[in-house]
Write a structure and sequence with these properties.
alpha/beta, 8 helices, 301 residues
């Protein structure tokens, strides 16, 4: 008997009519936008954006994946249809929100790919680890982009794990920076439209979202003794990324025995905007052998 359906709050819903499974769902489901609905997908691939970003980072990606995969673009609260929810300021709050919101869509094989903040919260050691800790169905695969993995706890008010500066950087937490310094930092990293950073009225509208996202990242600390999620994990990054240098990405085997490899592409912290086809191909190659196999951890390396 198939598992009971759940509402967006995780409460069991009334049994649907027998034909409901074949009906396409709405394009939007809470935090998720599905640009290409698939009635009975073989896999759901969830894509998580960076701090200050949105699901639009992955606009156009769905067409690069197999036709029977449903690509789900995830928005963190504080933007788009979740603007009224407001940004959440800690990884614990954000992960708890996403677990509740995504639960109805985890009824079949799924995988997670996250860029920068999305690697920490959407993939990293948080969402996947929470699912494992709660005994829920695990993703078949994790893809981490431009996030260097757990690091030792930092002093209060300093940056945590990612994205920060080069290894050893303990600069001030970005959510606490004065507006002028935060806008200058964002200009130096790239990825944010200049008109947003240069226009005071636009900045005033979006600043709370940036600060909320950076609070999630900069206050995060790995839980003492936390085990890595027992899931295959592949790492991606830019070979000229000054925010998360390749050397940081190369350290991932120290943080998980399920490491599946590192893919570096030409570019900076936002390299994937120029290499979406190549990254999508590498995701597909990593995932395809895992879609039809039982959800179980690979043998640690």
């Amino acid at each position: 008997m198939p598992p009971a359906a759940h509402t967006a709050t995780g409460v069991p819903a009334a049994p649907p009519p027998a034909t409901a499974r074949t009906r396409p769902r709405p394009t939007h489901h809470g935090s998720v936008t599905c640009p290409r609905l698939v009635p009975d997908p073989a896999l759901r691939l969830f894509l998580f954006h960076h701090a200050g970003g949105s699901h639009l980072l992955y606009r156009g990606w769905a067409e690069h994946f197999p036709a029977d995969w449903e690509v789900c673009l995830v928005n963190a609260p504080g933007r788009g249809s979740l603007h009224d929810v407001g940004p959440l300021a800690s990884s614990e709050e954000l992960v708890a929100y996403l677990v509740r919101d995504l639960e109805p869509l985890l009824d079949r094989p799924f995988a997670l790919f996250g860029h920068s903040m999305g690697g920490l919260v959407g993939v990293g050691y948080e969402l996947a680890r929470r699912l494992a800790a709660e005994g829920r169905q695990l993703p078949r695969w994790l893809g981490v982009s431009s996030w260097g993995g757990p690091r030792a706890a930092r002093r209060a008010g300093s940056r945590a794990s990612e994205p920060g500066g080069p290894a050893g950087d303990a600069g001030p937490a970005r959510h606490l920076l004065p507006d002028a310094e935060l806008r200058d930092w964002l200009r130096s990293v790239g990825g944010t439209p200049p008109e947003l950073l240069d226009d005071d009225s636009l900045w005033a509208m979006f600043a709370p979202t940036f600060r909320g996202d950076f609070s999630v990242v900069d206050t995060w600390r790995p839980a003492p003794g936390a085990a890595p999620p027992p899931v295959p994990l592949t790492v991606f990054g830019g070979d000229a990324d000054a925010v998360v240098p390749p050397a940081r990405l190369a350290g991932w085997p120290e943080h998980t025995p399920y490491f599946q490899g590192l893919h570096l592409h030409p570019g900076d912290h936002f390299y994937l905007r120029d290499h979406e086809r190549a990254v999508a191909r590498q995701i597909t190659e990593a995932l395809t052998p895992l879609v039809s196999t039982p959800a179980a951890p690979t043998r640690p390396r």
